[in-house]
Amino acid sequence: MPSRLIHALALSAAAALLASNAAASSGDAWETFRAEVSERCLAAASSLEKASAVVDPFGSESFGLALVIGTPKGSDTAVTRICVFDKQKKTVELGGELAPDRVIIKAPEKAK
To answer: Is 50 part of any domain?
Structure first.
């Protein structure tokens, strides 16, 4: 077998191995990212009781995004706050409290 062919086969095998490892770790990396966004957004929204976060699976290019839903202390009405997580700086900012009549989430109807 000519040495060029052996070299090309070795490079192809190495590239395939690296690609499969990258694909496997990217799923884990996205899970870690989502967990970090959720944790940091919930920590920032500590004024809300029984809070939960709905995290955008991938966010935008620069930011992780989530909706944090909970009840302000001393209130009976749940509110939603928009949470923005800066991917590079690892900082979080929260928007104001949005009342239930301002944030209505409705699943799209299924096509018939």
So the answer is: yes
Q: Which two tokens stand for residue 41?
A: 């957004």
Rounded CA-CA distance 3/16 in Å is 20
The verdict on residue 81 lying in a domain is yes
For the entire predicted model, the pTM comes to: 0.71
Tell me the pLDDT tens digit for each residue of 21-43: 344 458 889 999 999 999 999 99
- 27 falls within a domain: yes
101 inside domain = no
Exposed (0-12), middle (13-18) or buried (19+): which is 82, by Cβ within 10 Å? middle
Can you give the residue range of the structural domain that contains 68? 3-94
Q: Taking the CB of residue 92, how many other CB atoms lie within 10 A of it? A: 21
Phi and psi angles of residue 111, each rounded to the nearest 5 degrees, phi first: -65, 140
